[in-house]
Amino acid sequence: MNTKKNSKVLALLLALAMVFVMSVPAFADTAEPDWSTVPNLTTQGTTSFNTVVGAEEDVTLYVQGAGSDYVGKPFPTEEHVNALTVTWVGEEGPAVTKQAVPVADGFAAKLSFSEDGSLGAGPHTLHISNPVAGGWTGTLDLGVIINPDVFASVNNITTKVYFGKMTDTTAVNATSNINEIANKIYTESGVNYATPMDALASMVPSVTFTKDGTGVDSFVTSITKDTMTLANENWGPSWQYRVYNSDGVMYPESANLGANAYKLSTGDTVVWAYGAYGEAGLFAASI
């Protein structure tokens, strides 16, 4: 009898040992991925920072890791892709599926969704972040612009240009008001609605400007009034814009969207100012 009991005890101990040994790889597999080589995020392949789509279209975007210099590189493992958080900014957009797809030397994140009508015409932002994100590090905002079939006119658009900070009362400035924007003025926009670039283009020839980029990714590089011209400087001051509603309150999202993607509404005021990004006093909170 003792021999049988000892055999049962030994069998139990062996079974427990096997369970323990088999559980070790499982714990190792659930370890947090190492983000030291890819602390940042960027687009992959043909994906742009802004994607223009029609209503109720299927959309696919690709994201990869990036080093501290923001040069793109594949995610080392599938776990890196699985650890990403994807959310719509300020709204409940359509569900986004996330999939790790093999690429050379690693993986990319494939983000897919169907525009089911829950996103209205104009720009929307998809925010992607990794678990070690902080500040600008480890985050990526992708613009999804829903392009309407028919141009919707807007009325009573005011445009102000400040050759300096908006709060500098001595800065040279120019102001115009257009009763209606009924069609595209800035014809390179690539979207079927009025944008801050249209508002600026409405001031020509009293104010002229140059630009770089194409479509929704184009941006102002210099503005001229009479004999005064201010141009963007590398890592220095540049032309930026903000939009204020008919009550004079700034739309905060205008700080994060390209001037050729933001959708204007009736009664808006577009303000252009020249200075460093985030510079105190560059824009007022209200007008």
Structure description:
There is one protein chain. The chain is mainly beta. It has two domains: 40-146, Immunoglobulin-like (Sandwich), CATH 2.60.40.4140; 154-275, Ferric Hydroxamate Uptake Protein, Chain A, domain 1 (Beta Complex), CATH 2.170.130.30. The longest helix has 28 residues, at 2-29. The chain is globular. Mean pLDDT is 88; it is low at 24-29. Strand 6 and strand 7 (106-114) form a beta hairpin. Helix content is 14%, strand content 38%. It contains three helices and 16 strands. Strands 1, 3, 4, 6 and 7 form a five-stranded antiparallel β-sheet that branches. A four-stranded mixed β-sheet has the order 2-9-8-5, with no helix packed on it. A four-stranded mixed β-sheet has the order 11-10-16-15.
The mean pLDDT is: 88
Give the CATH level 1 class of the largest domain: Mainly Beta
User: Helical segment tally?
Assistant: 3
Number of domains: 2
Q: Can you name the CATH architecture of the largest domain?
A: Beta Complex
How far is the N terminus from the C terminus?
A: 94 Å
Structural class: mainly beta
Instruction: Flag low-confidence runs.
Output: 24-29
CATH topology of the largest domain: Ferric Hydroxamate Uptake Protein, Chain A, domain 1
Beta-strand proportion: 35-45%
Number of strands: 16
Major β-sheet profile: 5 strands, antiparallel
- From the alpha-carbon coordinates, what is the Rg to the nearest angstrom? 26 Å
- The helix content, as a percent range, equals 10-25%
Q: Name the shape in a single word.
A: globular
How are helices and strands ordered from N to C? HEEEEHEEEEEEEHEEEEE
